[in-house]
Input
Amino acid sequence: MRERIAKLTSNILNPFLVSLVLILLLSFRSTSSTLDAVKWLLVSIAISILPVLLAIIYLVRKQRLESPFINVRKQRTKIYLVAGVCAGIGCIIFPYLGAPPTLRAAFVAGLSAVVVFMCVNLLWKISLHTAFVTASVTVLIILYGSIAAVTVVLVPLIAWSRIELKHHSPAQVIAGALLAALIAVVVFYLFGLL
Output
């Protein structure tokens, strides 16, 4: 029963779904019209989530990755590179497209996290599930204040699930959470959004 709950938690709070929800909330929070929000949502998904997801699907089908949620540390490098290129493209073109500051900050935070986590990944595996949830919770609290504080319960929940499934150690989930929160706070502060 515990394992089923842990799997369900990990599947629901996966990096792709968490990113999608965060981009959706940021798009609607940072624009004045629904049309603009939908535009930035679609552009953000096309630049960030979709290419990474397609790369993972391709590599899984070619049996170069064990699964969509890459548990083998050495297999993560390819995905870090794809994610880094996508985030870098977003960081470059968003200012020219007039993207809202919150979305630009999110892409800079994403690129920063990819670089840091890719370096860590050379020697040690870190929990991306926990990192994505923690970064998203941090950004939501920054933007929405105390009303978003209720989302903090998702951090220990996802951390527990990753440990329960034996995909990560307690140190790996704690490191993922702390680094992700720190990166989000620093980037949003530098953008004047904190």
In short: The first helix runs from residue 2 to 12. The mean pLDDT is 93. The radius of gyration is 16 Å.
